[in-house]
Amino acid sequence: MSKSSHLADRIQNLQPSAIRELLKHSKMPGVISLAGGIPSSELFDKEGLAEATKIVVDQNFNDAFQYGLTEGNVELRQQLVGLCQERGMTTTPDQMLITSGSQQALDLLIRALANPGDVFVVERPTYLATLQILSLTEATVQSVGGDEHGMIVDELEALLKTTRIKGVYLVPTFGNPSGTTLSAERREKLVKLAIEHDFVIIEDDPYGAISFTDNREKTLFQVAAELGNHENVVYTSTFSKILAPGLRVGWILMPEWMKQKVAIIKQATDLHANSFSQSLVSAYLSLNRLNPQIALIRDAYKQKCLSLSKYLQDELGDHISFNQPQGGMFLWAKFRYDFDTTKWLERTLAKGVVYVPGEFFFSDNADKKTLRFSYATASDEQLFEAVQRLKSAL
Ligand SMILES: Cc1ncc(COP(=O)(O)O)c(C=O)c1O
User: Fold this and answer.
1) Do 262 and 308 fall within a single domain?
2) In CATH, what number is assigned to the domain containing residue 12?
3) How is residue 45 annotated by DSSP?
4) Tens-digit pLDDT profile for residues 62-87
5) 251 DSSP β-pair partners
6) pLDDT on residue 31
7) CATH code for position 211
């Protein structure tokens, strides 16, 4: 018998990331990647991070290199109360848990909530790594469709007529991969459904701050609070896309009934998030550089997004359609006719350009005509060249 039979059943069922396989050639010299979900390191605030590092070493040395509280650095949590307030959410340091990025937040939350077989609903398409976490907990995943206004909440309502739902996971603002934003009307309806049917909404918000316009939808957390509900929405966000992902600092806002248990899972996982990173983020926030930094990122991504949209429209408009993103890092496109974007990748790779085929973002009913472009890291010239290469690969 193979030794791998020692692995737990749920681990044996885990599939390697098909995207990783497909994209392992994307680092070859000359290949332009529109595939990665990473922010532009050219925009990292080197001066601010250096200054914050100096503050930490000179003024906060012990805390930064010592074990810390599972819930997270006290000062950082106090600062985050202010940051959440700017996003329209009233909270307290007690309601908060600092995590190792929002990826860990999702893992802790789903592990805290899911029994094997519990039904979790995601959007079609959705964030791939959440599907992996759900598969590890052996939850049952059901999906509802999405359109240019985000998750189709009416479909969820229909599903609720036949199915007991434990949780709904979504990226309601500038979603990954869809780039779409859930409309105000759907936000309210979704939260009301959560209250009526008593399921938990996991609101994943890494991109909300990167808005290309002055319009800002209320977070689901805020919508619930305005309806007097503080029980059914869990919010998570991160410094990964607005400061630097290598820091691995994110946070969760949780209802009272979850808080203690999630903290215990966190403790069992890694005791607490990296002390140095937390002190560094706290020192950075004290410099009041975050908002100017976000403005810089927003302007740069907006420009890149407009460029990519224009080139795609001009060169491939007869072949693909897409919604114009209003923020975030992703442009989600779809062929106008039957097409397999996974197969196409081999051809575009030969021409020196990669993207992520859409099918990997679906838990079921994959739409092979779809594909995700990230415009965050490429320069304007590269975006132009990438679209020319895509065209030549058709
Ligand atoms: C939708 C979504 N959620 C969570 C994450 C994880 O981010 P973090 O770096 O905070 O763990 C990402 C990262 O790409 C993401 O796109």
Assistant:
1) no
2) 3.90.1150.10
3) -
4) 999 999 999 999 999 999 999 999 99
5) 98, 237
6) 93
7) 3.40.640.10
Angle, helices 46-59/275-286, rounded to nearest 10 degrees: 110
- Ligand 1 centroid, distance to 214 Cα (angstroms): 23
C-beta of 37 in contact with ligand 1 (< 6 A): yes
**21: confidence class by pLDDT, cuts 50, 70, 90:** confident
The answer, yes or no, to whether any atom of ligand 1 lies below 6 A from the CB of 374, is no
Ligand 1: distance of its center to the CA of 178 in Å?
A: 14
Residues 75 and 128 in one domain: yes
Parent domain of 98: 60-286
- pLDDT tens-digit profile of 311-325? 999 999 999 999 999
Q: What percent of the chain has pLDDT over 70?
A: 99
Kindly state whether residues 88 and 215 are assigned to the same domain: yes
Q: Domain end: 247, 263, 286, which one? A: 286
Number of structural domains in the chain? 2
Residue 119 lies in a domain: yes
pLDDT given for residue 82 in this prediction: 98
Both 73 and 207 in one domain: the answer is yes
Angle at 149 between CA 148 and CA 151, to 5 degrees: 105
Is the shortest distance between the CB of 103 and ligand 1 below 6 Å? yes
> Nearest CA to 293 among 251, 331, 242, 365?
242
Mutate to test the pocket of ligand 1, among 241, 278, 281 (most ligand atoms within 8 A of CB): 241
What does DSSP say about strands 32-33 and 250-253: parallel, antiparallel, or unpaired? Answer: unpaired
Same-domain pairing of 350 and 259 = no
pLDDT digits (tens, 9 = 90+) for 284-310: 999 999 999 999 999 999 999 999 999
The DSSP annotation for 125-168 comes to S--HHHHHHHHHHTPEEEEEEEETTEE-HHHHHHHHTT----EE
Mean pLDDT over residues 186-206, rounded?
98
Question: Can you list the positions of beta strands (E) in the chain?
Answer: 32-33, 96-99, 119-124, 140-147, 150-151, 167-170, 200-204, 233-238, 250-253, 320-322, 330-335, 353-354, 356-357, 370-374
